[in-house]
Design goal:
Strand content: 5-15%
Radius of gyration: 18 Å
Number of domains: 2
Largest sheet: 2 strands, antiparallel
Order of helices and strands: EEHHH
Number of helices: 3
């Protein structure tokens, strides 16, 4: 499936199979919504996050704001781990796991 980084810094998809998650709204999709045409579950829109996503936001919608800080912190730790040689230099990568 096609994916690209949009000018707003968020990632968007160009295609979808089931639901149009992260697919940008177009003039045609907005018109279809406005006129009540087409299948609403197949039309990109705000409820499918048509503005795109950031990797740290992926997951259930109710966790988007709650998970951002912990995900970024873990990414920082993993980057530091990799810079120090990863498993070769420091041992098991599961040492970063949280319980």
């Amino acid at each position: 499936m096609g994916i690209y980084k949009a000018s707003n810094g968020r990632w968007k998809r160009t295609k979808f199979v089931f639901e149009p998650w992260y697919v940008e709204e177009t003039f045609l999709s907005k018109l279809q919504r406005r006129l009540g045409l087409g299948n609403p579950t197949k039309t990109p829109g705000p409820e499918y996050m048509s503005e795109g996503f950031l990797p740290e936001e992926l997951g259930p919608i109710e966790y988007i704001e709650k998970s951002r800080a912990p995900v970024l912190e873990q990414a920082k730790e993993m980057k530091s781990y990799a810079e120090k040689g990863g498993a070769v230099g420091m041992g098991c990568p599961f040492m970063l796991a949280r319980t």
